[in-house]
Amino acid sequence: MQTKIKLSTSLKAVHAIPLILLFIFTPLLFESCGTKKEKNTQESVEIVEPIILTPKMLYDINVDSLIIERGQVKRNQFLADILLDKGVNYAVIDHIAKNHRPVFDVRKIRAGNSYTIISANDSITSPMYFVYEIDNTDYVVFNLSDSLTARRGYKPVEYRLESAYGTINSSLWNAMVDGGFDPNLANELSEVYAWTIDFFGIQKGDEFEVLFDRLYVDGNPIGIGKIKASRFQHYGKDQLAFYFEQDSVGDYFDENGQSLMRTFLKAPLKYNRISSGFSNARFHPVLKIYRPHHGVDYAAPSGTPVYAIGEGTVTRKGYQKGGGGNYLYIKHNGTYTTAYMHLKGFAKGIVQGTRVKQGQLIGYVGSTGLSTGPHLDFRFFRNGNAVNPLKVESPPAKPVDTTHMEQYQIHLKKWLPRLNQLRDSVNLVRNKEQVIEEKAVNNLS
Q: What is the pTM of this model?
């Protein structure tokens, strides 16, 4: 009996050993696992982002793995000449020419314009698209596949703020060219100051600084945008101009909010020179006598466009033999009237009673009547009395509205410092150039 009890006790002890071992080593096991987990949380894990390949797009076409061929339309080359040479069926070309004229008339393809042919990368490089660039921004895409569709597209235009400056020695155009700037900026600047500065009367030494938008497409300059701010020093006086929009209409104003637009343009045409001025006793080149000449003669080539200097109504139109030749009178208001004489002809639609706008074409320079050569005899009347057109002070147009003046002041705080900074930088350059010139002169002497 005792033997059985001992044996049972021994067996119980043996069975208890695994439980004891489990009790002893379990905390160590959890601690080991916990330590390992902690280490894992401290280690940095590099997350590999999936690589997303951006397709190569051209004219809104995915051109990955396609063949791109560029060219320019040659003189006397037509669409058929280009595409037949690339293996495009004539029936396809004929379909494009006849059925897509509302999108683009292929007869308007011009020599010198660029085109692109996009082809499949197969054994025969089958043309899939023909893209013709209408101008710098607009293009048309012809789908040469089974769909035979056509669509217009537009390249995005980038606007970059740039600056230009110069000192005039002969003309504004030459000053732009000498400074390495786009000469077309001269035309834009002359439009801004058309009412306040006679650009055919600018003086040597006049200076200008301009901040303007330059337009880019595909990284290439394509033209001039808006002039944002400018300063033109004429006869030693600064004339500022800032582009500002009120009620969705843009105009140019000075630092006080006064409009640079005037009731009258400074001149009715782009002329070469003033051949004869306002005088009470001018020696007439034909009659060989002294008599009053109450106008200004602008010498210009025959056919040069003549524009109305202000809004008004045509009150007289006709021909004066042995005098002013073809002439035109425009009454602008109860005070001012202008006259245009020796015209070669009149613009279409100009008759007595016609209402004309400022800058509207009214006729062309000629040599009709008593004249020795092509020129415009321009006359200005105030209350019926002839006055010197070159000395007329034109009243300004409407200034910045009072409801927008606070906004305009904010606008000035943005652009005036930039304009002043440009002038300071330019003056440093001009001073350095002057020092170099003076040293050169001293060395020669």
A: 0.65
